[in-house]
Amino acid sequence: MSFFAGLISTVFERRYRSALSDEAAGRSITELASDLLGSHGEVSGSTLARLILDRYAAMDTDEKLAFFVFMTHDLEIDPQKVTDALQSYQDTPSKDSYRAFAKACEPPRQELIRRLNQVPGATAQLVAMRKDLLDFLRKHPDLAPLDVDFQHLFSSWFNRGFLVLRPLNWSSPAEILEKIIAYEAVHAIDSWEDLQRRLQPADRRCFGFFHPAMAGEPLIFVEVALTQGIPDSIQSLLADGRDAIHPQDADTAVFYSISNCQAGLAGISFGNSLIKQVAADLSRDLPMLKNFVTLSPIPGLNAWLKKTDAVPDANPVNLAAHYLLEAKRPDGMPADPVARFHLGNGAMVHAVHGNADLSDKGMAQSNGAMVNYLYDLSQITKNHEQFVAEKTVIASPDVRALSASFKSDT
Fold first, then answer.
1. What are 122-142's pLDDT values in tens digits?
2. CB 341 within 8 A of CB 373
3. Structural domain of residue 322, as residue ranges?
């Protein structure tokens, strides 16, 4: 009986979905969104969510902008309701008065996004939707409250507890390898042969974070080289025809490329957890490793140089060291985005190298200079807290000496 009951239920559910789809065909996406917010049935809710997402995917730029304007301004909180609910909670603190206050503080657009996420594949579509929103924000800053809501929800949905760390290698599915090539943001992968050189040798590793709702899409990945000693150039690290070493002979793990893959997840932090997890795993599997470092670009150096009175023909290594230690944003944080990332994770500026990246990109960004950030697993918590609390740039004596030399030269 249960089989036939399920069969009958499926038939009626499909007919209901079809009828609802036909009825909704002539309604606007904003009307469908309002219907979804008022829907309490599981079938009708998922059908409306699917219709809205499909409708959005077919929209042109102006239509998408109009939908975002609707979500921002028509699905906003009611300030008076918030004030009244807060007063009620202050007057009579209770579970019910607190629930009413929390509900008043949440704009309906957050619930709309949650309800859209109830159908298979919706999470990836919502990430793509936020990418569109971020593109609009440059010219339409009034949409910023909507992005706050997207970021709030994504921070929960993509919490570290939901992420799965997966090793990636030359035997990984081709569709994943294609995405590694496409998403590589630091040192371009020119061909399948180039990718093979980064993944197949025994002294190379690659790891990515994945989310169960986007199983075929890496969120972020890191490429690692196992080396003897700390490298001072990307050319030597990625050289074609280099001699690979046995992993057991390595004393250093070098994080030489970290790439965020989903533009719609900008501002959702994965890198901190990724580096620490990979370092912990490598330390467990290869206990002879002594150093965990990056070989990182300095993407803001030349742009900063153009805006300052710094001497452009100064020693490039001294100049880079001075920039990393002294150049600040108005809020007191380091001007360089990569520096902010690694220092915020608890790393320290360990060494600066000239002629380390002679690619067109490397020369344009920093005249070829690169930097090693050192992750001392026993110090990263202390370094992180000091950086966050005091905005202190932790650096080695050698790097501080280079910065001092720049000051004396100028």
1. 999 999 999 999 999 999 999
2. no
3. 163-409
